[in-house]
Amino acid sequence: MATGKIVSRLHLLIDRCVRRYTEIEEVSSPTKEIEKDLLLSLSQVLREIQSWINEIASDSSELKVQQEAGEKTIDHEDETTAALYDPESEEYLCLERLVADLVGLLGMKSVHVKHLAGNILVEVSESLVESGSQWDDFIRLLCECLRLAVVYSCPIPDSEIGFGILRNILKRLSQEENEELLDVYLESVNSTLAKIPWCRVDTLFSHQHGNGERNSQGQNGALGGTPTSEEATVFLGNFVQFLCSVVQQVRFAEDNDGFEPTHLILQKTIELIPDLLCWCQPKLESQSGSCMSRYLGHKLLVLMIRLTYQSNIKCTILLSWLEYLQRHFQGFLQHTLTRFEPDQDNCLEGSPFFVSLSDREVNETHSNHLQRLTVLLFLRCSFTLLYSNRHTNKHCEFDCRKKGMEEMFKWIEGQVPGDTFSDHGTYTKKSVDFSTSFVRLFMHEDDLLFKVLLQLLSIPLHEKELLNVEGHSLQDEEQTILFRLSTLFNPVILFCIFLSELHYDHQVLLDYLISKDIGASCAEYLLRCLRTVCDSWTVFVEFPFEGSTNASSSKRRKVLTENSEVEQNGKLHPQAFEDAKDCLISLQNSVVKLHQKKLFPYNPEALLRRLSRFQELCLSHE
Description:
The chain is an all-alpha fold. The protein contains 26 helices and no strands. Residues 428-542 form the Protein Lines N-terminal domain.
């Protein structure tokens, strides 16, 4: 299939479908007959474009085979390509009309028409990517049209559909693994977000929060009306979800010059966070317990967590996020983790949304999920203030570090009172109970589990015990807090608890390692933990301490027998050590076998070296 003038073909195809309907008055509110005809036409357009994409992909595959075979290929389109892409060319004008026609359909009062028009825009994007024809122009035009839609509907009810379209296009791009296309996408989206008059949007939401209903004429945004509460909530949900997807795709590099598309889009998203929190909070409070309220709370926390991984956030912003958590998610932070029992939410399996449970069970499970996100964001912000070398302004660093210390102290005191740390050496039953409950909280969401375990590895160990003495200096107070952190989150103890919660099943570890989603995180965690274990061998061998553990969770492969007598009663440390040893050595053997057969998804040599070192120490211990 010739791809040189694919834009003209797309325009003719879409124009034949759309033109006769746009000439009808009041087309924004079509009759059932018109809507039915339009839906049939749009469905045909969608199928035709999809068939073109398949043809283009097939031609590309054949061309690649010919090139690999050394055959010469003749491209008759090279001479005309530059002329086709000129902004004043017929192809560019066709692209403008094509995008304008499809975006215009997003304003129709028909959910089905909007859905199909959005799908066609996504397929148009895919066809241009496959053909290598004017995709850059397309995404810029689309973003500009959607910006105008936001301005003139300001921003509801149609503009949230545009964010969904951009999100679906981004999903397709992420599969292409083309950094140049992704940079163009991020640049276009950033330009759009920068041009939107957010002050008008803020005014609209302020008005909406005040009365929650449309004006008497039932009109929206720039036309003088106010959206309903439901419309506003849907818009916010779509917008926050879109930003989450964008931030997830960003490849952040600390040494960029500040003007790269990835840096600019992150900075713009961070700038929008205060407004988003302000707009969303009334929804979270007024619709508490509703599905949309849960969704908004979930997505806001996810967005902020992702930003902490992708960018160098100013300490003042981190402090403002900590204050937000204390003000609006205080219940999740204050909830005592030592009350978290095994199997408490074993139906979650990584998602906060499902329908197979009772309302009470759903609320409890969702609360556990939000608690995980809240605690993880709290730790990310606090640890950055406590341990990061990012801050260069000494005065700012000292002040923010002090505030970060204060927040961390309040949280630790609420979880484990200070007298716990002075009663029985460095490790006491209460502190280990807390560590066990902490791990259990995250066991049923694998992605969050490894995020938090890796985060806790940043805590430096304090070998000497610090007593709680009155009249000590600020430095002593800081050392006390840091000591408590290293006691509660000792990486060796957490690793022992982690293995115990898996019931020492090496197959679960293997599943983690070969997982597409969390394999890299699990490998990093095992590499770093095994090094620490080998350096702190005595602590590993002697865990658990007498009376320090209870029954473990049910995170295991289903083929195992549930709730064995040994697991229910806890184990003496010789048995726990033997189980941990057998688990890790079995893992080593399994990885070796898969690697020899070239079935392991990546090179595990570094991990195998750490496991071999662990095996050597086990042999010497015997």
